[in-house]
Specification:
single chain; nine-stranded mixed beta sheet; six-stranded parallel beta sheet; 17 strands; globular
Length: 422
């Protein structure tokens, strides 16, 4: 196997894209964005999908976009036997993440895994254990935090411009009865949209405000029957909505409402309120501006960046892919999305080649999953749930049937994630 852990810095990372569906194509666009900017430090040597036609199509696109056609694999065993592959970019549906990542990590391959890292804490823990044993890098692909507005919002909090933060509100409410992206996101044993989207939102809470301590709330199925683009019905077996109340270790209360249902107006709000003012953060992957509202008026955008000074500086990769303010500057969504993904992919490649921790490691990805699960577990118990109790497996009844399907149930399953932020 090609090694990048042999005591010398390698200039390029031999990579295999695992999963050639919609998300795989988006990651390929991220590679291409890095390549156009002269920042692509990996070589896509292989692609893997159990559907040969999908893998062949992505290999064709990779040749056009990157200049070389990767090998095509249709079995995981062939990927693990391919000695040229040093790292895997895993973008399959989340019910398969641990089954792919654990043997790859055990073989010494580095892993960038799409969120949610796993469907349950046991799935996440298996990946953490494998990475710890092998010394390989395990990173979670979490892209919302990568944009300029979310970077600026974090800087505002850290610089103390809000004074003492005491409340955060996140609301994404409104939608239709259409399937959200793919049918499997409405199946409990495959990874519900409540979890899939929820981890974005809980990751941002910890990004802005530090570790979450406890959660209370419930998930619900707002639309029991969803419709595909062709009008075919999809019966939902897992939550499409998440209503949660969190408390951070620092004492900030966080109200979260994600409900992609109900016709009419779609309502989006992300605000943080403190003793010295309030901050409004624009929707993700848009060119909106962060607004800081204080008794003496409103400051936003460039003016706010100037006030922050050295506390808000975007890295060169973000500027190259998303412009000086890190928003994409009003470019088409596909280009902005590729930029966000390119930033997270570049961070992973740099972590492997340059020997630093990834920004969102396996534990941070696990904590985001645990925060969503804490809400779902609290509904079963009808009480607030400590995040530590979810992380250690002391509370897990919501996850039991999922673990059964994943083959992770029983006394041999691993527990005991350390409940600390990355």
């Amino acid at each position: 196997m090609h090694s990048v852990n042999d005591g010398r810095q390698e200039s390029r990372l031999p990579l295999c894209l695992v999963g050639c569906g919609g998300m795989g194509r988006r990651h390929l666009s991220g590679y291409a964005a890095l390549s156009r900017a002269g920042l692509w430090r990996a070589d896509l040597v292989a692609v893997f999908d159990v559907r040969r036609e999908a893998a062949e199509a992505v290999a064709d696109d990779a040749e056009r976009l990157l200049g070389n056609r990767p090998r095509v694999h249709t079995e995981l065993a062939a990927v693990l036997d391919d000695g040229d592959i040093a790292a895997l970019d895993v973008v399959t549906d989340p019910s398969t993440h641990h089954a792919i990542a654990v043997p790859a990590l055990e073989s010494g391959r580095h892993i960038l895994c799409e969120k949610p890292l796993g469907l349950t804490i046991r799935a996440c823990q298996a990946m953490l254990d494998a990475a710890r044993s092998s010394g390989a890098v395990l990173a979670t692909a979490e892209n919302y935090r990568r944009g300029g507005p979310n970077r600026m919002a974090r800087a505002v909090v850290k610089a103390g411009l809000l004074g003492r933060p005491y409340l955060m509100v996140q609301q994404l409410v409104g939608g239709t009865d259409r399937v959200v992206i793919t049918p499997w996101r409405h199946r409990k044993q495959r990874g519900t949209i409540a979890l899939d989207m929820g981890v974005h939102l809980t990751d941002l809470v910890e990004f802005y405000l530090g570790p979450i301590a406890s959660a209370y709330g419930r998930g619900l199925i707002a639309e029991p029957v969803r419709r595909t683009a062709d009008g075919e019905p999809v019966e939902a077996t897992g939550e499409d909505s998440l209503l949660g109340q969190f408390r951070t270790v620092s004492g900030v209360e966080v109200q979260l409402a994600y409900l992609p249902a109900g016709p009419g107006h779609r309502y989006v709000q992300r605000t943080i309120h403190g003793s010295a003012g309030s901050m409004a953060i624009p929707p993700d992957r848009t060119d909106g501006e962060v607004e800081l509202r204080r008794a003496d008026g409103v400051v936003r955008g460039r003016e706010l960046a100037a006030e922050l000074g050295e506390a808000f500086v975007l890295d060169d990769t973000t500027v190259a892919l998303l412009g000086p303010d890190g928003t994409g500057g009003g470019a088409p969504f596909a280009e902005v999305d590729a930029g966000y993904l390119g930033v997270e992919i570049a961070d992973f490649v740099s972590a492997v080649l340059d020997g630093h921790p990834p920004e969102v490691d396996g534990l941070a990805g696990t904590r985001a999953v645990a925060a969503v699960l804490a809400v779902l577990e609290s509904a079963a118990l009808d009480r607030s749930v400590r995040l530590d109790d979810v992380l250690t497996g002391a509370v897990r009844s919501y996850q039991d049937d999922i673990d059964e399907v994943l083959g992770l149930a029983g006394p041999g399953a691993s527990e005991g994630t350390e409940a600390r932020p990355a």
